[in-house]
Specification:
The complex is a heterodimer of chains A (about 280) and B (about 300). Chain A is an all-alpha fold and about 280 residues long. Chain A is built from twelve helices and no strands. Chain B has about 300 residues and is mainly α. In chain B, about 75% of the residues lie in helices and about 0% in strands. The chains are: A mainly alpha (about 280), B mainly alpha (about 300).
Chain lengths: ~280, ~300
């Protein structure tokens, strides 16, 4: 053996072999770039009613996705919609991880009463449909960006927590943890220094797979009119409006539908690929 | 087994109580009351009288215990938005369309998904496998209103084969049922495929091959039976999941079912209906998980005969 190859190298190789995941990753990267550089690639802002005389216009060379019912360039609205969708997805996933890691680590490390409590908490979140709770919370706080992130994180941490709990539970009995305990390390230190670093792959997977769930929740709530308030562009909201014009102006329904479907699909496949690459034993679940 | 069921029942009672308290508190902390609408403004004195007549002037904990006492006697109150009937009568009227559409969707989608999953597992890494995998990922990741929208665009708007909305004519049921069927089909295709592949790599399959059994008998008598175990557990929760799916499917296809009441009860501060809907769904999920666990235990000989799962 001339030189050792790191686990990361093998993970990358496994990921590169998964064509669907690579393509999804590229698509996702393009969508993120479009969202970041939205002002550079669009004609107008998302709320500029510059084309009122051409309202409901069909797609053309000048307006790739046509013009919406209020005279706004629809391509601009879709691109800015990616900003809303992605930022909600990533923020919510971040907070899911922030809630899920400590709870999962505590439940997995201590077991017993702590585990019982966390599992009951998870049970609570599994019997209440997230959508109903979200609708109630949405009414309570009048919707908006923060509310949606809070709701999505509140229901997104369960997955991360379960993944971390399983990993910590499996590593708790390993020799290096025993050794650390024998050397007098306190539980907080062991969890921070040994168990969480060993849970990095499930955490990454949990993070990525929480993103599409949050994006779907945002779209669903906005579709029902209790998500991000107009004029902030949200794909769910656009689908709802587009539905009313479907028979005569198909573009208002088709483009947001496609945008949402492609983004959610690409993120999910990318996450699936990451999971298979980082943890081959979980493959296909 | 009986200990296990009793333990679970206690846990369900606990969950149910916690959920009811949280939902009740949240529901009442939403600003505004049932008579604060702008289309028919009433004076403060009238409003106070109306609130008093419904017991809304009492302290929250009194209202909570009064309502829960009723729930224990199957009395869910009278919906504010339709005072001519009880909540139970409203549910009896609005639920059947949702149940028919959602139920047919699950009953059609499940066997279809299982067949697709078997086909994919048996033809691993061929185009059949790829198509099934793509379809199941699509079905599991795309929100149900997007699926509905695609169905309407293709079959109602472009091809013009089926009506886009309505409830009266049976042919208007086809598209909503297809929308409902998408999720169970996708879920089952995925589960069946991975579960079968799991089993086919097990040593007992090699033994069966060595014994000279035909591939067909191995698949249908041995692999499928073992692969079916994890699939049983997702069925009931998925069936109940169609209740919340109805919010979107029924809005898209303009079906007069339960879906719209989820939204309107929250918007109109229709406390009794809101509480009844959420409690019912919660209860059904609890019971569904319990039944799934019991069925799983009964089907799995390793648990049935007292061993550890």
């Amino acid at each position: 053996m001339s030189h050792e190859r790191s686990p990361l190298y093998f993970a990358l190789r496994r990921f590169a072999d998964n064509k669907a995941a690579v393509v999804s990753g590229i698509i996702l990267a393009v969508i993120i770039l479009m969202a970041v550089f939205a002002p550079l690639i669009t004609l107008t802002g998302y709320e500029d009613q510059d084309y009122l005389t051409e309202a409901l216009g069909f797609p053309s060379a000048a307006h790739w996705f046509g013009i919406d019912d209020l005279g706004r360039d629809f391509f601009a609205r879709i691109v800015y919609g990616a900003r809303v969708s992605l930022s909600i997805g990533f923020t919510a996933a971040f907070f899911s991880v922030v809630i899920g890691i400590p709870l999962g680590a505590i439940a997995g490390y201590y077991g017993g009463a702590a585990d019982w409590f966390v599992m009951r908490l998870i049970e609570l979140f599994s019997v209440v449909p997230p959508l109903l709770a979200a609708m109630l919370l949405g009414a309570l706080t009048n919707g908006g960006f923060v509310t949606i992130v809070v709701i999505a994180a509140l229901f997104g941490w369960v997955q991360v927590c379960l993944l971390v709990r399983a990993q910590v539970k499996a590593f708790r009995e390993k020799e290096f943890v025993r050794a650390a305990q024998a050397l007098g390390a306190n539980p907080g230190y062991i969890i921070r220094r040994h168990l969480i670093p060993n849970s990095v792959s499930p955490i990454i997977v949990g993070f990525v797979l929480a993103i599409p769930l949050a994006m779907m929740l945002e779209a669903s709530l906005s579709f029902l009119g209790i998500g991000v308030p107009p004029p902030v562009p949200s794909w769910g909201q656009m689908i709802n409006v587009g539905m009313n014009f479907m028979y005569f102006y198909w573009h208002l329904a088709v483009f947001p539908t496609a945008a949402l479907a492609i983004t959610v699909l690409a993120t999910t496949l990318f996450g699936d690929g990451l999971r298979d690459a980082l943890d081959p034993t979980l493959k296909g679940r | 087994m009986i200990r296990f069921i009793l333990g679970r029942l206690l846990s369900i009672a606990l969950t149910f109580t916690v959920v009811s308290v949280i939902v009740f508190l949240m529901m009442h902390s939403v600003p505004g009351g049932p008579f604060d609408g702008n289309d028919m403004p009433v004076s403060d004195a009238v409003k106070a009288k109306l609130n008093a007549s419904l017991g809304l002037d009492k302290p929250l904990y009194v209202q909570y215990f009064k309502y829960m006492w009723g729930v224990l006697h199957f009395d869910f109150g009278i919906p504010f938005q339709s005072p001519g009937e009880t909540v139970l009568e409203l549910l009896a009227r609005a639920w059947p369309p949702s149940l028919i559409l959602g139920g047919s969707g699950v009953l059609i989608g499940t066997p279809l998904g299982i067949l697709l999953g078997i086909a994919a597992a048996l033809n691993r890494n061929t185009w059949i496998d790829y198509v099934v995998s793509a379809l199941s990922t699509l079905g599991m990741t795309i929100p149900v209103f997007v699926i509905s929208m695609m169905l309407i665009m293709v079959f109602a708007v472009w091809l013009g084969w089926l009506p886009a909305s309505g409830w009266e004519k049976p042919n208007s049921w086809i598209l909503p049922i297809a929308a409902y069927a998408a999720i169970p089909m996708a879920t089952y295709a995925r589960y069946t495929r991975s579960s079968m592949l799991d089993q086919m790599n097990k040593p007992f399959v090699t033994v069966l091959r060595a014994k000279g059994l035909s591939e067909r008998r191995i698949i249908f008598q041995h692999v499928l039976r073992n692969a079916a175990l994890p699939m049983v557990t997702v069925f009931l929760p998925m069936f109940i999941g169609t209740a919340t799916g109805s919010i979107f499917v029924e809005a898209m296809f303009r079906v007069p079912g339960l879906g719209a009441y989820f939204v309107s009860s929250i918007n109109l501060r229709d406390y009794p209906l809101e509480m009844a809907l959420i409690l019912m769904i919660t209860m059904m999920f609890c019971v569904a998980y319990l039944i799934s666990d019991i069925v799983y235990a009964l089907l799995n000989p390793r648990i049935r005969f007292g061993g550890k799962p």
